[in-house]
Specification:
The protein is about 45% helix and about 15% strand. By secondary structure, the chain is α/β, with parallel strands linked by helices. The protein is globular, with a radius of gyration of 17 Å.
Length: about 180
């Protein structure tokens, strides 16, 4: 099975639950793709070089970001409607940054094509990618983990965050809550 995990960084000592999940899933023969947003200077006992079914995509690296933008441009130019984001009305007023973010999102959708499961390890990351959730749900099963702070604290501090979180949770296939209290919120 092809599984993608979207997370902040990997490996992290404080997130051994993710490390152990990746280790166990790959040992069972699953093809794992990790979409990582930030570098990790921590070294845990997990040799990624000798594991052919583990692919780590470091989004913070410029080359990877540029490749995703180029993949998105290819999708746009080829007018592949299966990979369009929900925001189809790009105007010059929105600026170049929006254009590149939009193309990067399309590239990410292309990268995730063929995965049976895409798991956002934190709901905050899912909120960041909320424009991708509806087209992603048409391609695969989407899971979001709710661990506490992003669901209970951040919406109090940022009013718009609650609406964005509700939008995400209304689209995904499965919501993983780490406690009964969080699932009631």
């Amino acid at each position: 099975m092809k599984i993608a995990l979207i997370l902040n960084s990997f490996p992290k000592t404080s997130e051994t639950f993710i490390f152990n999940k990746v280790k166990e899933l790959s040992s069972k023969g699953n093809e794992i793709t990790l979409i990582v947003h930030a570098p990790s200077s921590e070294i845990l006992n997990f040799n990624t070089d000798s594991n052919p079914i583990l692919n780590i995509v470091h989004l913070y690296k410029r080359r990877i970001s540029l490749n995703l933008v180029l993949m998105g441009l290819w999708v746009t130019l080829s007018r592949n409607t299966n990979l369009e984001t929900t925001d189809k009305t790009f105007t010059v007023r929105r600026g170049l940054k929006h254009f590149f973010v939009s193309q990067r999102e399309k590239g990410l959708l292309l990268l995730l094509q063929g995965c049976q499961i895409v798991h956002f390890e934190y709901s905050g990351i899912a909120v960041t990618y909320r424009r991708l959730i509806p087209p992603l749900c048409k391609m695969t099963k989407v899971v979001v983990s709710c661990r506490g702070s992003a669901e209970l604290v951040v919406p109090i501090l940022q009013a718009e965050r609650k609406a964005a979180l509700v939008e995400v949770l209304n689209h995904v296939d499965l919501i993983h809550c780490v406690s009964g209290h969080i699932s009631l919120e």
